[in-house]
Amino acid sequence: MFSAQGLGRLAVTVALALPLAVGAQSFGLCERSRDVSAGEQDLILRFTAAVLRELASSGGQAALVSRAGTDLRRFGIRYSHAGVALKDNPEGAWAVRQLYYVCDESRPRLFDQGMAAFLMAGQSGGSTRVSIVTLPEEQERPLRQRVLDKPAALRLLAPRYSANAYAFGLAYQNCNQWVAEMLAAAWDSAAGADPDYGRERAQRWLQSQAYQPTDVQVGSHGLMFVGQWVPLLHVDDHPLEDLYALRMQVSLPDAIERFTRQRAPGAQRVELCLRDRQIVLRRGWVPLGDDCQPSAATDEVTTLD
Question: Most buried among 13, 37, 111, 186, by the most CB within 10 A?
């Protein structure tokens, strides 16, 4: 028989499983890939060209990029996967360096992915979206240097992956948590003098700088008996008080963007959305609506013939 505590943990695990299984699922590695028609590929490639033009016009060398994946809008989550796009990435201009989970090897790795492939995996709710945050040179330069430094980047890669990893725990890591810890390694003034700067130091700095992970609330118990079969989820790293409150503190792209805006007031955000052959571009921190339609006078609209 389960103890009361055991039952509580089981209920929380099941309730949170489906909405938080975003890391591997959104990357398309642990599920059957969706067939993409030639027409869809053409649209994505043209959308990618618009994204690359925006990155090039920023004048920067690196940017935080986030894409949608699994449709999690019912939980208030639009973007599920973040990485760092690098103009001089060895794998190609503006390829995205990111953490991903290798299902065949059952382990996380760092991976450089071209922008088109990155966006191809980000279709959700009938649209393809990307959020781009560019940084002032003061914050961009150390981030670019750290991310391109493979030994430094790998020191912040945990050996075990969990899509719902606790943001201030060392047992597991998700893709967005690696990005958050890379920001710490780039912006913590003490990191440069420490050749062994690791995850514990990075998380202590994030806490000291008031980093707030996404507080994921579960609003429906109907998911309880579904999520228990979803892999890559764990609860043993989360505080008990959070589990009993049916919430988890997880690093997601919105938390990373909020923190970046706090630390770098000069950061600029651009959001692009492709839907029904129309690209809508919005500058600023107010997100586009779910319908992907222009609603502000400054929104830019391009119709793909």
Answer: 186
Tokens of 206: 């994030």
Please say whether the beta carbons of 100 and 108 come within 8 A: yes
Distance CA 137, CA 63 (A): 11
Q: Are 115 and 51 in contact (CB under 8 A)?
A: yes
CA-CA distance, 303 to 305, in Å (whole number)? 6
Instruction: Please check whether residue 79 is in contact with residue 142, taking contact to mean a CB–CB distance below 8 angstroms.
Output: no
pLDDT given at position 271: 98
249, β-bridge pairs:
215
Contact by Cβ (8 Å): 77, 295:
no
Model pLDDT, residue 274 = 96
Instruction: Quote the tokens at residue 244.
Output: 């009993």
pLDDT of amino acid 72: 66
Dig out the tokens for 139 from the structure: 């914050």
pTM over 0.90: no
Burial 162-187 (b: 16+ CB within 10 A, else e): bbbbbbbbeebbbbbbbbbbbbbbbb
pLDDT more than 70, % of the chain:
81
Helix, strand or coil, per DSSP, at residue 16 = helix
3-state secondary structure 134-149: ECCHHHHHHHHHHHHC
| Per-residue pLDDT reduced to its tens digit, 247-302 | 889 999 999 999 999 999 999 999 999 999 999 999 999 999 989 999 999 999 99
